[in-house]
């Protein structure tokens, strides 16, 4: 459906610089509708301030490309490593995640200066002899990293504005339209040995390897994601009040947080409304349900007397599916593929160390940047998380 | 290695009663060395007071067999459902887990009376016409449930006594000897399609089904578990202080709780000691390391440049392994097998609702009752838990 | 009304031993109705297990009298200092308060042996030449300390049994009857300079000194405490649901804990019941309201358009008051009197270090031992505490 | 020393408007050096975002003066009541204190528009016939309320910048100079009956009434506050490591938070530095120690073998003291004076409902606005708070 960021055949210098500029610019385009104050706040630990995303993605290029590989590079500000390092233990101390929203400085203007400075240096670097071929994968990683943060940015912006009692409008033209789904057909995949995992010659994350064989029983999988209409039926039939559909952990979560609907849904004057990038609106019943936790996805499937697909089932069936609107919770835990190897050094911390306690999501969403999705992509979140653009696909 | 509790061919009435008595008596034998006070306390939420185990296992027989199936059965005490229901939401309100250690009543003597009463009624019941064949699986479930609690009892007793500053002795003759391991060979299993899951005609838990095919790459697996000697090398080489061996979640756990060794280990006067059922003793280097979390198991494997086996690998290789001393952390998350079905009603809550966020352990331990282990058994705990008799087996 | 434990004129050796035995025996009499299990649990951090009280009071005599002053005294168990030291930082490490309920050992039987051993040694000591006159105040402190714990024991026993879903009966004959109050008259005290604080020649705590002058405006004070009848009117008129009667901190407490009535009150089948030492009973409307927090006492007074007395007002009016049924919350914070001096050494930690954030209670209660009350006695608790036998007296 | 905001003799219309403008402008002057981002964050629950202070003080005038008293007044934004109400339960729902830092909107620019709008309306109102004499006290309350927030603003700005790893400079010229103190003399006040509490004809808060008689013993009180030099001696002599100087609650606080020095002090390269409005600087030993908790103040006094004065002692001696640099912790709890009466309605919530668990501070600080201090002023904070400009004065 979508295409990969790059292929190894297209590594001409000019391409890299254009690609760098294109992706870097897109990040700033996402932030254009924000007011300065919107860049600063961190309402919950899982949501980072937009200005932190702007700085952190820039820090990645400075730390992993410019500092080690551009001779005589002067860091923009030596204190920024402390502020913008997210979780790379190798690279020294870092502001802990819960504290990011306490930092008013560096200011948004200073961070944009930081971006401009690093971008100028990167332009020099990418056109220099120092940008040798063995650094191409590292640049690609940095660009894909920035694209991941573009999606996180949109989710975090939605959280910040959607939890403000004034429900401010972001700007609809920055976001693709939400599709509508009318089809509830299922396709059947036969028992057999299949291969999953990345095996192209473009970019992929380390967690998509090795490509390997899996044995699958015959299964059926819905070609479209679950809609708001269907999810409303679950709500109205008391799905949130009957423990029998829920994991024990999910039921505790429902009780503790008094969950009654997906994130951003509000029952106002006898109507279900939800917060969108255009403000508060009535639910569109034909759109795919969004912002549900794994617990909710699994409970919905149980109520439907079906189940969520595994990630292998999803990938094998992907060509038959209408995907790309929602990150779809699978019933697979996020674990290494056979033969998975962490890369050496700090970039080795990228994926492997998160392979416990999280669930895999497959597909992509309306917030995923163009050219940043593929059917082998393994996204992962804790099962209680709802701020991403998550949805449900049924299997049986 | 071990045999199952029963087989469907041996369902004569007299057998069931003898088996019931044998298992029920063993629970009380485990508690013989306790003082009354030891039955009462709950030092952490994961550890239940021994008297609660005694009551809860009894409540199971009363609630699922006697009440619905023995005509005119009089419950021993109508309030006990509230006290001894553990998590069956179907069966009504329950004392929440964190409150069990606050209850001094019912007294230990009253709970033993409760056991005696239910045992007498069960004896009548099992010899009556009311104990029809379709109830045999329910009885078997109750007996296996009690055996599971026998192991939990031993783990909880060890926790209670091992966290008392007086380090009281339990009584060694109640526990089998710990084996010593001298071998570090590995066996090799070839790539291929294998079947895992239970397919005998005896008892198994619902989570062991369906038996199904899996495709495995070629792998090697150690025939013996990791010893204290090997784990000491990990400690002494700084394994607990280098984040690179750890999952991010595990590293947070190490930092937050200042973990420096397995549970029950104490560094006293320049020697490593550990608390055992015989009190504080010097580490026996040839015994299998015990009471480690999944995080520690995974970090150890990473330090060894190996990995933990998956549960499928473990089961396929089981015949070649020396297992049964420790519950062995696998790198598999606890998820349903293809075709898994919850049973109808309250017993359907037994396993399925825990299938998120936990890791599978395979094998058995010195605390597992005789006749309560099989190679398809799927134990599961949260990755931070260490109070069970957990150990490590390496693969690559 | 009540008399003091001793006077300096009555310090003959035989008296001290008899007094010691009398007080020590009374502690054990209080515990007679308990089952072993009741001695062990600690439902909340503010409630200590009864066996801890038994050990701690004994540890006081061992640590402050026998060890330093009886030659060749052998401590019963060197580990007990760690277990039974409550808060004396001078005397070394201690089990933190939240952990007391996790300790099954020493057993109840062992603690009674400890008491017997220390009592035998104390008998020798009190009759020996080593018990010199300058040690009399220390013994008196130990005896008053034990009497304080007798009242705490009763409060903690009530909490343990009263929070058990089986509502077990303690034993009424161990407790004096609750008086009934029919009078709502007030007495008037004129403006003037008064003296408060202890100035007799018997025992008093350091916090009752120095006796000093205070200037009081004219005030009125109720001669009887507030009854359940009056408090029911507060409840029924919505007192718990209107913030305007409450301190901000009290209102937060009401909201957070969903407080709707005094501790131990339950609204069952349209009637207000409360847990008493005789089990669950219907409210006796003429008894003094009991088990209220300072917040509730102050809110009630506000609702009545009156106020709580200060401790100086209370003491000055004491001769006119019917007191001794309830510890009466005053509107005075617990602070040092002019000229207050901590005593040197560990016993100096007795009172002074608590002189922040707590409120003073005056009087005594049905749980106070005979001969352990006087009108200058300053009891103190945090304003949210309700497990003591606390009540309300109005002033204006 | 300082003079009061107004006197009842000076209530000409023009005066009120000038005073209103003067005070409102000063708030904005304080914020001039801030960048937009600095207005938004809330690093801890006790620190409010500067933009919240700007809005809340404005909301006070809108809610209590314009809405009820200016005919046809149109509220600026009906949602602002929810955002900017701090604690007035009477006035409806409010954003809870911990959430203020999550709100990026209304933006800083919008809040300045809100201020401009309300100020214009207030100018009309204060010159209109609607501003009748009985409203003068309410306006005065609003102006004093705004002055209180000016000091809180400075404390919160210092906290926000001083906890940023970049230690940004505020702007020194916005703050008065810190005085130096060289004198350690004490003055003596004789035993007697004194009067305390406000009795002038200007403005005072309700908690300063009634003026009433107190009896004081003879005491001595230092004429100058404790300096950094003296406090350094306390640190260097191990004052933070010896429990005997501390309240039990204070010692727990020291242990839990690993307190080793006043807030904003950092031991860097063998020197004690502190964060000031001009950035990180070496300690000036002759300035008064600042940003200490009550616990630290009391422990310091104990170490000096002195004590803190009571608020009555402070007020009686005030004419002899060099005060105004620091809010001085007294050893008095914040409780009502004899005859204290809450005012009717929402403004009655101003002071009375906080009269539990807090300690009184007397004096004023370098952050107190001119004309907003008097010797009868009763400030109050919880004993652990250090973000205000608090200091120590000794007595004995």
Task: Report on the architecture of this protein.
Chains A, B, C, D: Residues 22-151 form the DinB-like domain. Chains A, B, C, D: Residues 185-318 form the Sulfatase-modifying factor enzyme-like domain. Chains A, B, C, D: This is Ergothioneine biosynthesis protein EgtB. The structure is a homotetramer of 396-residue chains. Chain A is an alpha+beta fold and 396 residues long. The first copy, chain A, has two domains: 8-173; 186-391, paralog of FGE (formylglycine-generating enzyme) (Alpha-Beta Complex). The first copy, chain A, has helices at residues 13-31, 50-69, 80-84, 108-126, 136-162, 228-236, 248-257, 294-303, 311-317; strands spanning 186-189, 192-196, 212-216, 219-222, 265-268, 271-276, 279-282, 327-333, 359-363, 379-381, 390-391. In chain A, the strands form four sheets. A four-stranded mixed sheet of chain A has the order 10-9-8-11. In chain A, a hairpin with a 2-residue loop joins strand 5 (265-268) and strand 6. The longest helix of chain A is centred in the middle third of the chain and has 27 residues, at 136-162. Mean pLDDT of chain A is 92; it is low at 1-13. The B-C interface holds B 35-43, 51, 79, 82-83, 95, 99, 101-108, 160-161, 163-166, 168 and C 35-43, 51, 79, 82-83, 95, 99, 101-108, 160-161, 163-166, 168.
Helix/strand layout:
The structure is a homotetramer of 396-residue chains.
Chain A: H1 13-31, H2 50-69, H3 80-84, H4 108-126, H5 136-162, E1 186-189, E2 192-196, E3 212-216, E4 219-222, H6 228-236, H7 248-257, E5 265-268, E6 271-276, E7 279-282, H8 294-303, H9 311-317, E8 327-333, E9 359-363, E10 379-381, E11 390-391
Parallel strand pairs in A: 8-11
Antiparallel strand pairs in A: 1-4, 2-3, 5-6, 6-7, 8-9, 9-10
